[in-house]
Amino acid sequence: MFDFLTDSRSDDTIAITALTEAALPDWLDTQPASVRKWADLQGFKAKKAQIVSLPGDDGGVGRVLLGLGKEGEALSPWTFVGLPATLPRGNYAFDGVPDAAFATTAALGWALGTYRFERYKLSDSEAPRPHPHLAIPEGCDRAYVEAAARATFLVRDLINTPPNDMGPADLEREAFDLAARLGAEATSVIGEDLIDANFPAIYAVGKGSERAPRLIDLRWGDPSHPKVTLVGKGVCFDTGGYNLKPGSGMALMKKDMGGAAHVLGLAHMIVSLNVPVRLRVLVAAVENSVSGNAFRPSDVIDTHKGLTVEIGNTDAEGRLILADALSLASEESPELIVDFATLTGAARSALGPELPPYFTDGEDLAAAFSASAAATADPVWRLPLWPAYADNLKSNIADLRNDGGPFAGAVVAALFLKRFVARPERWIHLDIYGWNPEKRAGRPVGGEAMAMRAIFDMIRTRFES
Ligand code: BES
Ligand code: MN
Ligand code: ZN
Q1: Residues framing ligand 1 (Cβ under 6 A)
Q2: Which of 71, 231, 335, 375 is the most buried (most CB within 10 A)?
């Protein structure tokens, strides 16, 4: 799959010179006048991710200049993703690799920039151009690069697949296929069996669809290792239910299984890099549909934990299915629970599509996570589980209600989830967008992994020592 990463250089290898803005003038001084003139004419300022190719004597590319931006900023794979998407086919290598972190980040960026979603591009006129090749830079952690890139491609593929081909059963098949590849155990509870197994909230949300809801449960690793449980929101399509979304709000809702995609991607990373944990992955997979059998606003439903919930809004479905999965996760007291969910529009309003908010009651956990986010250039921002806002979840007739007024929607949704988590100081909730809304070099419009490498780094750092 990653044949565009090659072990060795060849005679025709083209050098890529990566320069910070500060290093550019000195480097130009060492160059012939023709190079200085070309770089100047092309406006090369070493801005972050700026790419300029220098002509070679033979009519090919002589050298590639890549901007790294300002000195001292954390190196990000996104700085490199434009290279494979922009450069013509050929063999390339970085000249002057400062350290192993640079090597790994650059190779990961290159790998990520080769992604294309081609499943539905069947006509020959759309034949893809071949990828340029990169000689693996010295010191690169190739296993990490391949695991992170494969996981990211899995996340993107799962999100990009249209909902007619990615219903709850398809998501289950993807999870089971992954489990088989990884050597993990996989089980699921499907349809009306959810009632007997006491997952009433997952059943209530999913019963309106012809495509049966399910709770998918994967396990891997030595049972004596510390327990880590990942929980994903797998709403394969979110119409809003009877509180139907308008067309504009429904347009992207195939991505509402993005949380599930993220936890499957993480499972791939944790298992293929053999992190010493006892891993459990829970995916609540449903379709939130409108039908004569769908749940309604004003219904009161039961939950796995035994708390009753008044349905104020059928479009606040994610927190309901996560409630059942989080209380199941809590029953075996894992060291850590992490859930990923495309949970609220309010998260996007607060922080935009690129900066996922996270919530936890664990101060040490927050510090470790924020350090990992910085180290992996996979940004997140903590928002508070502000206790006073829990009043928004009060119902006149049930223990809770699932909608929570017009303010602080992401916080209120997180407070709802917290009611189902036994040890909230050992829990992180991520409210992700999971989608690139704008096309950038190497990052097409479509599904995107967010905070996955940051969570992986935190788990590996914590449990590998
Ligand atoms: N899946 C949506 C949240 C969402 C919307 C994520 C747009 C990303 C982009 C979720 O199920 C939802 O509809 N949430 C409602 C909750 C409200 C009814 C309390 C929301 O955020 O509007
Ligand atoms: Mn919804
Ligand atoms: Zn949803």
Answers
A1: 238, 256, 313, 315-318, 342-346, 348, 403, 409, 433
A2: 231
Active site residues: 245, 319
CATH of the domain at 21: 3.40.220.10
CA distances from 409 to 94, 257, 405, 406 (A): 46, 19, 8, 7
Q: How many CB atoms lie within 10 A of CB 51?
A: 18
- Interatomic CA distance for residues 206 and 11, integer angstroms: 59
For the stretch 174-222, pLDDT in tens is 999 999 999 999 999 999 999 999 999 999 999 999 999 999 999 999 9
- The model's pLDDT over 60-92, given as tens digits with 9 standing for 90+, comes to 999 999 999 998 888 999 999 999 999 999 999
Q: Any idea what the CATH number is for the domain that residue 173 is in?
A: 3.40.630.10
Vertex 204 angle, CA 200 and 206, to 5°: 115
What is d(CA 214, CA 321) in angstroms, rounded to the nearest whole number?
Answer: 10
Note whether 67 and 152 are same-domain residues. no
User: Within this chain, do residues 397 and 252 fall inside the same structural domain, yes or no?
Assistant: yes
Which of 243, 344, 431, 436 most suits a substitution to test ligand 1, by most atoms within 8 Å of the C-beta? 344
Q: How far is CA 219 from the centre of its chain?
A: 20
**Domain region containing 101:** 5-114
Question: Which atom number of ligand 1 is nearest to the Cα of residue 253?
Answer: 1
- Residue where one domain finishes, among candidates 72, 97, 114: 114
pLDDT band, residue 125 (cuts 50/70/90): low
pLDDT grade, residue 126 (50/70/90)? low
76 and 189, same domain (yes or no): no
* Cα 383 to averaged position of ligand 2 atoms, centre (Å): 21
Residue 30 alpha carbon to ligand 1 centre in Å = 55
CA of 318 to the centre of ligand 1 (A): 8
Q: Is residue 66 part of a domain?
A: yes
